[in-house]
Structures
1.
Amino acid sequence: MKVAVIGGTGKMGAGIARQLANGYDVIIGSRDPARAAQVARGMGARGAGYEDAARESDLAVLAIPYSSMGTAASLAKELAGKLVISVVNPLTLRGGLLHFALEGGSAAQQLAAMLPGSRVATAFNNVPARLLAGKVVPPMDILVAADTRETFEEAAKVVSSIPNLRPLHVGPLSEAEAVERITAVLANLAKLNGTKSLAARFVDG
Ligand SMILES: NC(=O)c1ccc[n+]([C@@H]2O[C@H](COP(=O)([O-])OP(=O)(O)OC[C@H]3O[C@@H](n4cnc5c(N)ncnc54)[C@H](OP(=O)(O)O)[C@@H]3O)[C@@H](O)[C@H]2O)c1
């Protein structure tokens, strides 16, 4: 199964690609195919331009900044009929803290509107990239917003392929705003309480 990580040269994309490369044929997508190939080397992955990566893939992870998310619209044809997992958080730094940058809605819903032929889900939004950089990731819960149970299960399978991660269905894509907002809360909690980074893990009871 081939997974394109669009923005796979970045902090988050490279972390996800590194983890997924254990179970999937990973294609790092970059605006610069040479940079993609360089990052892919040593990860057991390969590199390509965005368009080629998207076309060759069976599913994709979008890990580019919110400010450049419009780029995804140009991949609508290549990503049609496929699962697209958004890790994009529309956040802005103000007064030393991160804030949600949209008046309403979410990056994931905007992405779904750009990719009408794809099945869009959120996952990994709340995971700090540094926690994906090592060989083993710590136990974490991964909130997955998806409009149908089938799309949730498809995304959950990708999440579960990484040992220690537990996918949890947070509801339809309309809940993606809450998911994306949590990232700011966690980053601010880490900053204000003297820890490098925080990720979420819920207690079963
Ligand atoms: N960093 C984290 O801890 C973290 C955690 C959770 C979610 N996220 C989300 O993950 C996404 C990426 O964050 P990041 O920290 O990994 O950022 P990053 O290190 O800056 O990497 C983003 C990648 O996106 C590509 N890119 C940059 N500008 C672009 C543009 N104008 N058009 C198309 N592609 C562009 C770049 O790849 P090329 O130059 O190779 O094309 C770059 O490597 C963001 O949406 C962020 O909210 C990040």
2.
Amino acid sequence: VCGGAGGRRRLVILGSGFAAFSLLRAIDRARFEVAVVSERNHFLFTPLLPSACVGTVEMRSILEPVRRGRPEVRFHWGRAEAIDLERRVVRCRAATGTLEWELPYDDLAIAVGAAPNDFGVPGVREHAVFLKEIADARAIRQRLVACLEEASLPGVAEAERRRLLHFVAVGGGPTGVRFAAELHDLLAQDLARSYPALRGAARITVLEAGREILSAYDERLREYAVRHLRREGVELRTAARVREVLADGVLLEGGERLPSGMVLWSTGFAPVPLVTGLPFERDRAGRIVTDARLRVPGAPGVFALGDCARPREDPLPQLAQVAEQEGRYLARALAALASGREPPPFRWRNLGISSYLGEGTAVLDGGGAGRARAGFWAYQLWRAAIFTSLVSLRNKVLVPLDRLRAAVFGRDLSRL
Ligand SMILES: Cc1cc2nc3c(=O)[nH]c(=O)nc-3n(C[C@H](O)[C@H](O)[C@H](O)COP(=O)(O)OP(=O)(O)OC[C@H]3O[C@@H](n4cnc5c(N)ncnc54)[C@H](O)[C@@H]3O)c2cc1C
């Protein structure tokens, strides 16, 4: 089957995240007629999302429009809702309405990522904020500024002021820690300038249900991170399980209440609705199980990659670098398959993981790429890695300019 114009294969890509976007950039568009279906018409560079939610970098500096520079790619702003494997069509629905359509494919790449997991804890969806999409960063920034403004009002009761100025991150993984670090920088560097009366009054707490924060890192780095964050005044509480998120804080197992102006929920990921409805084998985390060439067994022409999938023999971590490498791999693999050749299996090159800790310090677990580091140089290496991974020249210019502007003039704390 080759139903595309000029005998080209019709490739449908679901999603516009790391996996989908790297596939889109690498695919040979002379040989494949490409259609993309995604709920957002941009690619989001998530490693800088925690910086964007406190205004260290601007939101538009970490987005890449999917359409720009690709006039021949058909972009469909919507959701894939089901896949008819017999007829080889994807059923789609418009992002904003009830319009539905079908999209035929010869090859289908499922790269729909994962969704925040609330583990069924009551109140999370109603009262907490997530940090996954650009809309989340905007909501966090608005809420943060609202808390600072309300806490500055005359006559606000002392207990209420303390509540408004207490920020809680639930989940001691990289997202919770990065958020706490970026928020610490904002409070330490910008409060004196814009809210002098609030100086020293704000608190940040990270709650982790397990025994340690940053559990994916080696022990020395974990200890360094704990020491550094505590020195900066971030409260870290392990074995702290949240029973409920309330409108004005969190309730812990055991009955303790922590009043808070904003609760960030960052405890891990669950499958998105499309994935839970597909008739494919999934692992315990709900990810689609593929073979080593990212093919979905029993579904000819269907591939799954990124956070929503994992090769059977290799439970790869849910990381941007994995998704990005898989996207590039699949572009090559599809070209090989179209020429009647069997591609080699996918191999992940571990580039290391890192987490920013605030005040120009980071931890860097080198993976295959080098040794573990902590401190100022780890931060510089992290920044260099971020800079090289930013996709377009535009963003490579904008992100350092944003940082410079925040350092010289302060972060923008206007409530829009
Ligand atoms: C705050 C934060 C910081 C992070 N920092 C790092 C980091 O520093 N380093 C690192 O390696 N990783 C990091 N990650 C993890 C990284 O972002 C993910 O591993 C990566 O985004 C996975 O890529 P993906 O393409 O699988 O999914 P995503 O990038 O999540 O993209 C999924 C796409 O699918 C779309 N979609 C969902 N459902 C549908 C549907 N039904 N139909 C059509 N489209 C759909 C979504 O709109 C989205 O475009 C971070 C994640 C977060 C949230």
